[in-house]
Design a protein that fits this description.
Elements: H1 3-10, H2 13-39, H3 45-50, H4 52-66, H5 68-86
Length: 88
């Protein structure tokens, strides 16, 4: 059995494609939103640095903004596999 038939039998194709598309769109837009919030001083560095995990999250958002294509590809693969596993 090839992978295409396996995927079609497992879950509807539109659910899989929609999940991947939404994750890639979020991966592209969320870092832009956070960068805007920091630039407009809505999110202040003093408060960001106060919380270790929030700072790491913001750092990752900035990194994802710098590496849109590669991070979107990684996110798409992770979501694709996650949806396949979840429907088993």
């Amino acid at each position: 059995m090839d992978i295409e038939n396996y995927c079609q039998n497992l879950i509807p194709k539109n659910i899989l494609l929609k999940s991947v598309a939404v994750s890639v769109i979020l991966n592209i837009t969320l870092p832009i939103v956070f960068k805007f919030l920091i630039k407009k001083n809505i999110l202040k560095y003093e408060k960001i640095n106060k919380y270790k995990y929030f700072k790491q999250f913001i750092d990752m958002m900035i990194y994802h903004n710098d590496t849109k294509i590669v991070s979107s590809l990684i996110i798409a693969i992770i979501v694709f596999i996650s949806v396949l596993i979840a429907k088993k």
